Fold this sequence. Notes:
The protein is of the alpha/beta class and 569 residues long. It has two domains: 432 residues, ANL, N-terminal domain (Rossmann fold), CATH 3.40.50; 103 residues, GMP Synthetase, Chain A, domain 3, CATH 3.30.300.30. Helix content is 31%, strand content 22%. Strand 22 and strand 23 form a beta hairpin. Helix 7 crosses helix 8. It starts with 6 loop residues before the first helix and ends with a helix. The C terminus is likely disordered. 5'-O-[(S)-butoxy(hydroxy)phosphoryl]adenosine binds next to helix 10, strand 14 and strand 23.
Amino acid sequence: MFNIGSYEERVKDFSWSIAEKELDYKDGDVINIGWYCTDRICQQGKADKLALIWEGKGGKEKRYTFNDARLAANTFGQFLRDQGVKPGERVCLFMDKIPELYFSFLGVLKMGAIAQPLFSAFGDESLKVRLDNSEATTIITQKKHVSKVRRILADMSYMKHVIMVDYDGRSPLREREVAFDLESATPVEDFTCEPTFAETPSVLHYTSGTTGQPKGVKHVHYSLISQYLTSKWVLDLQDDDIYWCTADPGWVTGTSYGIIGPWSLGVTQCVLDRGFSAEEWYRFIEKHRVSMWYSAPTAIRSLMKAGDELVTKHDMKCLRMLASVGEPLNSEAVIWSEKVFGLPFLDTYWQTETGSMMICNYPGMKVKPGSMAKPFPGITAAVVDSDTYEEITEPGQIGLIGFRPGWPAMMRTYWGNEETYKSKFKNGWYIPGDRATIDKEGYFWFVGRDDDVINTGGHLVSPFEVESALLEHEAVAESAVVSKPDVVNMEVVKAFVVLKAGFDPTDELELKIMNFIRKKLSPLAMPQETEYVKNLPKTRSGKIMRRLLHAQEWGEEIGDTSTLENEDD
Ligand code: WT7
């Protein structure tokens, strides 16, 4: 029997108090995610149960029980306190998927600071804009990434502590740097968590929009209520599950469902801190007897490409549930997974801002391959008209997805940008910026984004960020960045470049420009193709018509030019 029982029944008399009761939480009580994920699980008699099975590069393996996790989080929390880090300060976590990342995340929450996880592949510039915005006082990092921090530290007066978790003493520590070694530190047995409340900020995740700098999505401790219940009902996590979430905690999936959800349920999870390889992934599942696997469409498409034979070489019978998030999950991928694993990937739709799953397929419910299925119980979702923001009730009509605000994990604002936050609400709906249709049976079908943001392999890339980086190069007069189709990543970044007079459109120059922007951008945002053009299509007021270039790349009808002229405003 699945945790959710019957979806229809759960929808009928839903209240978030179901999760509150299970978590022994009442309105006004102290609620601390770090405590819920460790101390409470230990109190429930699971202190010796495995919390984390970790595999690093070169096959290194480490295992931690819930008591180990509790002590590690305490030790981090105490160290931060001893450094003088105060509740409410932002602590940036800039590490690979090493155990320290997971435990420092909980330690930060326990001592009441705000965790700001950033993807460790970010270069100096990507790191700096996000730190400048949050004004983090502390960054926890590793040897291999500290050089990036060092290069920008002089310009970051707000940054007080650079904590290195694997300092080997080979070269001296510099100003503001301090070493912390989890393995040799004396474990802190007794730690009093900061008494955080429902609305105390917990996590700050950065996400890219079409314009402007990346936005810091502010979440609060109360998000636990949503993350706990969705992990229980959608991922169906059970006590004896071995769970694997393939996402990096630099992104919201990796924290909401790679730390908070599973551990608040006392479930064992595994982490593979290595690059993607189909062979490796199957070996990992087989070795650790993974039973519940939460991944992303690009990874699934890469596995499909690696072939069915590879799957049959491994024993995959341990798997009982598969789910996916991040980009459209095409029906082929669902059909394929049914064929090779005997299980469909259950698509889940949500975003950094929503903090928890919103529209999902549920275990036991009919899967329509290609559909995101239905709103989580308690979530009011609709498709609304893009001009009036009135609900569209006729099945099959395309509109904007809208959610009635008020679920526990919803962002509370964009850090220092209340105006943009407010602009996301229209006519009483929160508008995530995606288009969809609803069929006669109430199933949601994703149509596309409503803006120019590129979703490459599940990562959002702002065309504006890439264009800005390009424009900083001395040879570039103008640029426009759009997506183009890609078999594995669904879409990849393509840049159109107009050169300044006196520069020749050579391959050599292209390489130079790419090397120049590589330092500024996340590797995920790098253009896969660059095309020199003499000029860019523009509106009369001079706005670049990305939509026209996009249509060209996707072989779509360019359509009515009058609509393009409407962009003139
Ligand atoms: C955007 C949010 C939620 C964690 C990862 C992404 C797209 C997300 C789906 C899905 C089609 C999806 C949307 C959304 N997206 N899930 N199941 N089907 N598109 O978080 O980086 O905030 O991106 O990803 O466009 O708005 P994110």
